[in-house]
Recover the amino acids of this structure.
RNA sequence: GGAGAGAUGGCUGAGUGGUCGAAAGCGGCACCCUGCUAAGGUGUUGAACCCUUCCCGGGUUCCGAGGGUUCGAAUCCCUCUCUCUCCGCCA
């Protein structure tokens, strides 16, 4: 959610941002301003009416104490009309405020000036590439390796739950667990605080990070208890500090949190969902930052480096994309995607996206800090995957397979394997 | 799951219809005292929103959430949520 006073002063900037993000029409900006004006007028009227009502009540109180009953009765009679009008205005204010809120929720975050303008993924900029595009005849896609070694059991996953809920068996299970530990350990070295979070959240939390209204269909629900299964740790971790005010010296707050993630992914099929490419349940280590506004872009680069460092140490080939305005999402002001090279599939797989939300999420969740002047101010939030496991696993299996057929264990993971060399 | 108690400011806790946004204490901040520390003294210290806007200032709302009664509600009534204690169950 954008700051309404920012919109008042920068209506054209906001409209341009909307169009650049792919919205067909930006008239909602005019609508919100119109509703806002009306709302403020109503609030003003309501407040002054309430004041005179309060004043009257005070006078009555004085008269009652002095025993001047008749005079008090006169005042009481007067309040009748006022009360009716207050009630009417309250209704109007409530309705206008709700409308204003709904309109506000439809306005996306404004992209940072460094973000390329464009509507499709073609306009994303590849700003960095690391490693070589591995090519060899013996390289198989990970699902073939997984089948050969019985590492991932998709069929039994279907039997037990359904498509997109595989079992990891033996070495694959251990590989995944060792990567989770490695990711978390690295984050701890870099100053993040580890968090273990609930896997279900309530409606307020889902609303806080913007899953509802809008992206409700991505989440699994627990209807009887009115919970949502988290689609990412971003939801519980960002909401961890919902409705809180930090002291300036407490910032930045950096959290690392491993959770499974559940996504309904309705309508996906084809090569996108082959093997580990897209699942309904997957593991992810998430990084979340709460920072002072003036530091957020610097922190975004740090976050991105923290995620990239993992890929480098794992010895995987990857590229960094700076997402264009139309491909970066509603809530982001700047976003990088990290894509790892899958030599078995000869394609790039997204394993992380690192985003700065500026105050867009914070405003919704009312996460603030007290600045030097002592005023409360919205802080900035950022998050990024560090990293999403299944696609990293796919890339590791494919990249580290040997002509002999065996799969080598990346050096940084060997401490988690009793220094074994091969899976 | 059954029975009972409760929810007030950063924390503890008073307040059962009228100058209560809320006593007191603790904590925080500022200043004073002191060679330093400790102790002490004085003052200050919630949030959202509206108006004004250089600053100052004025106003409304908020005592778990939502509704109701009343000229007036932290205080009375209704609904919901959560917490605690005991019993049951349990990794």
């Amino acid at each position: 959610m954008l700051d309404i006073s920012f919109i008042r002063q920068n209506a054209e900037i906001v409209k341009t941002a909307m169009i650049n993000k792919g919205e067909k029409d930006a008239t909602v900006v005019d609508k919100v301003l119109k509703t806002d004006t009306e709302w403020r007028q109503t609030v003003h009227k309501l407040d002054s009416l309430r004041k005179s009502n309060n004043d009257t009540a005070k006078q009555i109180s004085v008269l009652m104490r002095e025993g001047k009953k008749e005079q008090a009765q006169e005042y009481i009679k007067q309040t009748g009309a006022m009360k009716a009008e207050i009630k009417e205005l309250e209704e109007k204010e409530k309705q206008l405020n709700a409308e204003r809120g709904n309109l506000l929720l439809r306005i996306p975050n404004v992209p940072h000036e460094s973000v390329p303008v464009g509507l499709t993924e073609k306009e994303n900029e590849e700003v960095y590439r690391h490693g070589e595009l591995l090519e060899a005849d013996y390289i198989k896609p990970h699902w073939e390796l997984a089948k050969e070694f019985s590492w991932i059991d998709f069929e039994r996953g279907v039997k037990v739950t359904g498509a997109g809920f595989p079992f990891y068996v033996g070495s694959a299970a251990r590989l995944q667990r060792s990567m989770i530990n490695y990711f978390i350990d690295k984050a701890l070295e870099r100053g993040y605080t580890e968090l273990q979070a609930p896997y279900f959240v309530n409606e307020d939390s889902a609303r806080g990070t913007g899953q509802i209204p809008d992206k409700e269909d991505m989440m699994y629900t627990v209807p009887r208890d009115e919970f949502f299964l988290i689609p990412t740790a971003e939801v519980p971790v960002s909401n961890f500090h919902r409705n809180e005010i930090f002291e300036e010296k407490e910032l930045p707050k950096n959290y690392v949190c491993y959770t499974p993630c559940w996504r309904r992914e309705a309508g996906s099929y084809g090569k996108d969902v082959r093997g580990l490419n897209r699942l309904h349940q997957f593991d992810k280590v998430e990084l979340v930052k709460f920072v002072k506004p003036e530091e957020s872009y610097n922190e975004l680069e740090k976050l991105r480096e923290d995620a990239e460092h993992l890929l480098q140490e794992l010895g995987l080939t990857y590229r960094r994309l700076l997402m264009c305005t139309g491909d970066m999402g509603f809530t982001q002001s700047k976003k990088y995607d990290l894509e790892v090279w899958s030599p078995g599939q000869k394609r790039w797989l997204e394993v992380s996206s690192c985003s700065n939300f500026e105050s867009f999420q914070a405003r919704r969740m009312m996460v603030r800090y007290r600045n030097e002047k002592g005023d409360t101010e919205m802080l900035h939030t950022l998050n990024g995957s560090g990293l999403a496991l299944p696609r990293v696993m796919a890339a590791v299996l494919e990249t580290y397979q040997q002509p002999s057929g065996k799969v080598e264990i990346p050096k940084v993971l060997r401490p988690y394997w009793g220094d074994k060399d091969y899976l």
